[in-house]
Amino acid sequence: PKGRGFGMLQRLPHVLGSVLSDSAAAIHRLKEVVAEMERRDLANENSPLIVVAVDELADLIQTGGKEVEQALTRLAQRGREAGIHLVACTQKPSAALIGSAMKANFPVRLVGTCASKDEARHATGISDSGAEQLGGKGDFLLIASAQPTRFQAAWMGPKEFEGVCDRALGATSGQSQAVVL
Fold first, then answer.
1. Which of 54, 59, 132, 153 suits a disulfide with 120, CB 3.0-4.6 Å?
2. What is the pLDDT of residue 168?
3. Do the bridges between strand 84-88 and strand 50-54 make them parallel or antiparallel, or are there none, so unpaired?
4. For residues 100-114, b (16+ Cβ closer than 10 Å) or e, as one string?
5. Which residues pair with 143 in a beta bridge?
6. pTM for the whole structure
Protein backbone atom coordinates (compact mmCIF):
# COMPACT_ATOMS: atom_id res chain seq x y z
CA PRO A 1 0.00 0.00 0.00
CA LYS A 2 2.87 2.42 0.62
CA GLY A 3 4.30 1.67 -2.80
CA ARG A 4 7.88 1.50 -1.52
CA GLY A 5 8.29 -2.14 -0.49
CA PHE A 6 8.58 -3.63 -3.96
CA GLY A 7 9.32 -0.45 -5.91
CA MET A 8 12.96 -1.36 -6.50
CA LEU A 9 11.90 -4.64 -8.10
CA GLN A 10 9.99 -2.79 -10.82
CA ARG A 11 13.02 -2.43 -13.07
CA LEU A 12 13.81 -6.15 -13.20
CA PRO A 13 13.23 -7.56 -16.68
CA HIS A 14 10.91 -10.40 -15.68
CA VAL A 15 8.36 -8.27 -13.78
CA LEU A 16 5.04 -8.28 -15.59
CA GLY A 17 2.94 -5.16 -15.15
CA SER A 18 3.66 -2.63 -12.47
CA VAL A 19 3.89 -2.67 -8.70
CA LEU A 20 0.38 -1.86 -7.47
CA SER A 21 -0.45 0.20 -4.40
CA ASP A 22 -4.23 0.62 -4.49
CA SER A 23 -6.76 -2.09 -3.71
CA ALA A 24 -8.91 -1.58 -6.84
CA ALA A 25 -5.95 -2.25 -9.12
CA ALA A 26 -4.87 -5.18 -6.93
CA ILE A 27 -8.35 -6.73 -7.14
CA HIS A 28 -8.27 -6.44 -10.93
CA ARG A 29 -4.77 -7.99 -11.14
CA LEU A 30 -5.69 -10.81 -8.74
CA LYS A 31 -8.76 -11.64 -10.85
CA GLU A 32 -6.49 -11.84 -13.91
CA VAL A 33 -4.13 -14.21 -12.10
CA VAL A 34 -7.04 -16.41 -10.89
CA ALA A 35 -8.33 -16.55 -14.49
CA GLU A 36 -4.84 -17.57 -15.65
CA MET A 37 -4.76 -20.27 -12.96
CA GLU A 38 -8.12 -21.62 -14.16
CA ARG A 39 -6.97 -21.52 -17.80
CA ARG A 40 -3.81 -23.44 -16.88
CA ASP A 41 -5.84 -26.00 -14.92
CA LEU A 42 -8.01 -26.71 -17.97
CA ALA A 43 -4.98 -26.88 -20.28
CA ASN A 44 -2.93 -28.93 -17.80
CA GLU A 45 -0.15 -26.31 -17.89
CA ASN A 46 2.10 -25.01 -15.15
CA SER A 47 4.64 -22.75 -16.84
CA PRO A 48 6.04 -20.21 -17.06
CA LEU A 49 6.18 -19.82 -13.32
CA ILE A 50 4.35 -16.83 -11.91
CA VAL A 51 5.11 -15.41 -8.48
CA VAL A 52 2.53 -13.10 -6.94
CA ALA A 53 4.15 -11.01 -4.21
CA VAL A 54 1.92 -9.22 -1.71
CA ASP A 55 3.28 -6.80 0.87
CA GLU A 56 1.05 -5.83 3.82
CA LEU A 57 -1.37 -8.73 3.28
CA ALA A 58 -3.61 -7.82 6.21
CA ASP A 59 -3.98 -4.24 4.96
CA LEU A 60 -4.84 -5.43 1.44
CA ILE A 61 -7.50 -7.78 2.81
CA GLN A 62 -8.97 -5.03 4.98
CA THR A 63 -9.13 -2.49 2.13
CA GLY A 64 -10.06 -4.94 -0.65
CA GLY A 65 -12.57 -6.95 1.34
CA LYS A 66 -14.05 -10.29 0.33
CA GLU A 67 -12.95 -10.06 -3.31
CA VAL A 68 -9.28 -9.90 -2.33
CA GLU A 69 -9.63 -12.56 0.33
CA GLN A 70 -11.40 -14.97 -2.03
CA ALA A 71 -8.89 -14.48 -4.85
CA LEU A 72 -5.89 -14.90 -2.54
CA THR A 73 -7.42 -17.95 -0.87
CA ARG A 74 -7.99 -19.61 -4.25
CA LEU A 75 -4.42 -18.86 -5.31
CA ALA A 76 -3.07 -20.19 -2.02
CA GLN A 77 -5.15 -23.36 -2.34
CA ARG A 78 -4.74 -24.20 -6.03
CA GLY A 79 -2.10 -21.95 -7.55
CA ARG A 80 1.00 -24.08 -6.97
CA GLU A 81 -0.26 -26.87 -9.22
CA ALA A 82 -0.72 -24.32 -12.02
CA GLY A 83 2.78 -22.89 -11.48
CA ILE A 84 1.49 -19.82 -9.67
CA HIS A 85 3.09 -19.16 -6.31
CA LEU A 86 1.99 -16.70 -3.66
CA VAL A 87 4.46 -14.86 -1.42
CA ALA A 88 2.76 -12.70 1.19
CA CYS A 89 4.13 -10.47 3.93
CA THR A 90 2.27 -9.08 6.91
CA GLN A 91 2.97 -7.72 10.34
CA LYS A 92 -0.16 -9.21 11.92
CA PRO A 93 -0.89 -12.75 10.67
CA SER A 94 -3.87 -13.31 12.97
CA ALA A 95 -6.76 -15.55 11.93
CA ALA A 96 -9.13 -12.63 12.47
CA LEU A 97 -7.47 -10.71 9.60
CA ILE A 98 -6.29 -13.59 7.43
CA GLY A 99 -8.78 -16.41 6.98
CA SER A 100 -7.86 -19.82 8.31
CA ALA A 101 -8.28 -21.40 4.84
CA MET A 102 -5.66 -19.04 3.45
CA LYS A 103 -3.29 -19.47 6.41
CA ALA A 104 -3.53 -23.25 6.15
CA ASN A 105 -2.36 -23.13 2.53
CA PHE A 106 0.95 -21.39 3.12
CA PRO A 107 3.30 -24.41 3.32
CA VAL A 108 6.30 -22.35 4.42
CA ARG A 109 6.48 -19.35 6.72
CA LEU A 110 9.42 -17.06 7.39
CA VAL A 111 8.97 -15.31 10.72
CA GLY A 112 11.02 -12.43 12.01
CA THR A 113 11.05 -11.07 15.53
CA CYS A 114 7.65 -10.86 17.23
CA ALA A 115 6.58 -8.57 20.04
CA SER A 116 4.94 -11.25 22.19
CA LYS A 117 4.42 -14.99 22.60
CA ASP A 118 0.88 -14.59 21.30
CA GLU A 119 2.06 -12.87 18.10
CA ALA A 120 4.75 -15.55 17.69
CA ARG A 121 2.11 -18.28 18.00
CA HIS A 122 -0.06 -16.63 15.32
CA ALA A 123 2.89 -16.05 13.00
CA THR A 124 4.42 -19.52 13.27
CA GLY A 125 1.36 -21.62 14.01
CA ILE A 126 3.39 -23.25 16.79
CA SER A 127 3.15 -22.73 20.54
CA ASP A 128 6.45 -21.73 22.17
CA SER A 129 8.30 -21.26 18.85
CA GLY A 130 10.62 -18.68 20.38
CA ALA A 131 9.97 -16.13 17.61
CA GLU A 132 9.49 -13.44 20.26
CA GLN A 133 13.14 -14.00 21.26
CA LEU A 134 14.61 -13.47 17.79
CA GLY A 135 17.17 -10.71 17.70
CA GLY A 136 16.08 -8.94 14.50
CA LYS A 137 18.64 -7.81 11.90
CA GLY A 138 18.12 -10.89 9.74
CA ASP A 139 17.31 -13.37 12.51
CA PHE A 140 14.43 -15.59 11.29
CA LEU A 141 12.54 -18.81 11.84
CA LEU A 142 11.66 -20.95 8.84
CA ILE A 143 8.53 -22.98 9.53
CA ALA A 144 7.99 -25.94 7.20
CA SER A 145 5.89 -28.99 8.10
CA ALA A 146 5.41 -27.46 11.57
CA GLN A 147 9.18 -27.69 12.18
CA PRO A 148 11.05 -24.48 13.03
CA THR A 149 14.56 -23.85 11.72
CA ARG A 150 16.39 -20.77 12.89
CA PHE A 151 18.60 -18.96 10.37
CA GLN A 152 20.36 -15.67 9.76
CA ALA A 153 19.60 -13.86 6.50
CA ALA A 154 21.95 -11.40 4.87
CA TRP A 155 20.82 -7.79 4.71
CA MET A 156 21.05 -6.06 1.36
CA GLY A 157 21.03 -2.28 1.14
CA PRO A 158 19.96 -0.17 -1.85
CA LYS A 159 23.47 -0.09 -3.34
CA GLU A 160 23.84 -3.88 -3.19
CA PHE A 161 20.34 -4.33 -4.58
CA GLU A 162 21.15 -2.04 -7.52
CA GLY A 163 24.13 -4.31 -8.28
CA VAL A 164 21.88 -7.38 -8.25
CA CYS A 165 19.42 -5.63 -10.59
CA ASP A 166 22.23 -4.63 -12.94
CA ARG A 167 23.51 -8.22 -13.07
CA ALA A 168 19.97 -9.55 -13.61
CA LEU A 169 19.39 -7.10 -16.45
CA GLY A 170 22.65 -8.14 -18.08
CA ALA A 171 22.09 -11.86 -17.56
CA THR A 172 18.59 -11.99 -19.03
CA SER A 173 19.18 -10.09 -22.27
CA GLY A 174 17.67 -12.18 -25.03
CA GLN A 175 16.76 -15.13 -22.78
CA SER A 176 13.30 -16.39 -21.91
CA GLN A 177 12.26 -15.55 -18.37
CA ALA A 178 9.79 -16.50 -15.70
CA VAL A 179 6.94 -14.08 -15.21
CA VAL A 180 6.72 -12.28 -11.87
CA LEU A 181 3.76 -10.16 -10.80
1. 132
2. 79
3. parallel
4. eebbebeeebebbbb
5. 109, 148
6. 0.80
